[in-house]
Design a protein that fits this description.
A: alpha+beta; 3 helices; B: alpha/beta; seven-stranded parallel sheet; about 20% strand
């Protein structure tokens, strides 16, 4: 199970982004995971509960958006949702399809709590970033 | 128990006051929350280091080969048989990844080849940072081929770019021929697939090589598939040819090391 080390990488990025925008804490993190990324969403959620301890995301929720596997078939010029272990075109059977989505392992958005005061400083920090 | 956060607490604990132990939810509700939009790969840092490793290898015209498979599919035996066939033993090196022991590195060293062992402890894969550290312990200027024998595992290594040029996935005939259907992620990373231990095919009649290839092609994988046996020597010449041509495709003319071996 490598989900814990992936969570640690995720939380490093989250901490870096939080510093960059002058935020204090993170409330919600949204990641996109496709089945062909090799990451199991429920294991990622389990690992996140351990890995978030002592970080800016200590109380954050992790939302995993599951991305379907879709391929483009060059033979019949069409896109199809397929199973992760059978990427052939379901219409014409062509096997040399191109993956359109399904291997994502991406940090998409995070909701960051901003400090109450120091509006100006934050503006400056963001300006620099 | 505190209703807000579920922590075990005493009766005087509330969340209305300033966040004494860092919850502060009453207060936080009034705080301004900004949504930060990003499109960042979760393993961006690993990938960055992997890119750096690749540049480092290319600077010295070293082909990086990442061997991935389940435990016991014959990665080390393949490397033992590769030694000598590829050219000078000084022109290849091996980085071994295992949870414990130096056993595999010692097997390679017995062949006269430089081998570094990375013991990953509980970690189920090698990452680019570990390879980066190992690269600093190797004299790359003397090498043509650097083999990385990843931790035996068909799941986790697939997600980590190490800075290799070639991903080689091994599947032994003692495993099921439907492994590509069960572990699509790792087989999709393959630039070359080796069906190993083919000397056992006559007794392991359940393993159908053609069916196995069919499962691989269903993943849209165009990588060549070779049948090899380190024991009988079947397919070893084709494997060596793949390694040499991969080197030449990338780095052009023969290197001093390859020339010396041929000459």
């Amino acid at each position: 199970m490598h989900e814990l080390s992936i969570c640690q990488a995720l939380l490093e990025q989250v901490a870096q982004q939080t510093r960059r925008c002058g935020g204090e804490r993170v409330r919600r993190i949204v990641v996109e995971i496709g089945p062909l990324s090799g990451v199991e969403p429920h294991l990622l959620n389990e690992a996140f509960l351990l890995a978030r301890q002592g970080t800016v995301a200590q109380q954050a929720d992790l939302e995993v958006v599951a991305i379907p596997v879709t391929v483009h078939c060059p033979a019949c010029d069409s896109d199809h949702e397929v199973a992760a272990n059978d990427l052939r075109c379901p219409v014409c059977g062509e096997w040399q399809t191109r993956l359109v989505s399904g291997d994502e392992m991406t940090l998409r958005t995070m909701d960051v709590e901003m400090p109450e005061q120091e509006e100006r400083e934050r503006g400056e920090v963001r300006g620099v970033a | 128990m505190c209703d807000t956060c579920g922590c075990v607490t005493t009766s005087d604990h509330t969340h209305d006051t300033a966040s004494a132990h860092g919850h502060g939810s009453g207060e936080a509700a009034e705080k301004r929350v900004e949504q930060v939009e990003l499109v960042e790969k979760l393993l961006a840092r690993n990938d960055h280091t992997a890119g750096h490793n690749r540049q480092h290898l290319e600077k010295h015209a070293v082909l990086g080969i990442n061997l991935m498979s389940s435990p016991g599919s014959g990665k080390t035996a393949l490397l033992e048989s590769t030694v000598g066939a590829l050219g000078s033993v000084d022109a290849m090196a091996v980085i071994e990844g295992d949870l414990e022991t130096e056993n595999d590195a010692e097997r390679i060293r017995k062949q006269g080849v430089k081998a570094l062992q990375i013991m990953t402890g509980t970690s189920c894969h090698l990452d680019a940072h570990q390879i980066h550290q190992a690269l600093h312990r190797l004299d790359l200027s003397a090498l043509d081929h650097l083999f990385i024998e990843n931790v035996g595992n068909l799941v986790c290594p697939a997600s980590y770019d190490l800075g290799q040029h070639l991903n080689v996935v091994l599947l032994s005939v003692t495993e099921g021929d439907d492994k590509p259907a069960k572990y699509p992620v790792i087989f999709r990373t393959a630039d070359l697939i080796l069906i190993t231990k083919t000397d056992l095919l006559p007794v392991l009649t359940d393993f159908d090589v053609e069916r196995c290839e069919e499962y691989v092609r269903r993943l849209g994988v165009t990588a060549p598939m070779l049948r090899v046996s380190a024991r009988s020597g079947e397919g070893m010449a084709a494997w060596i040819a793949q390694l040499k041509s991969a080197w030449q495709d990338r780095f052009g003319a023969d290197s001093p090391q390859v020339r010396a071996a041929v000459g």
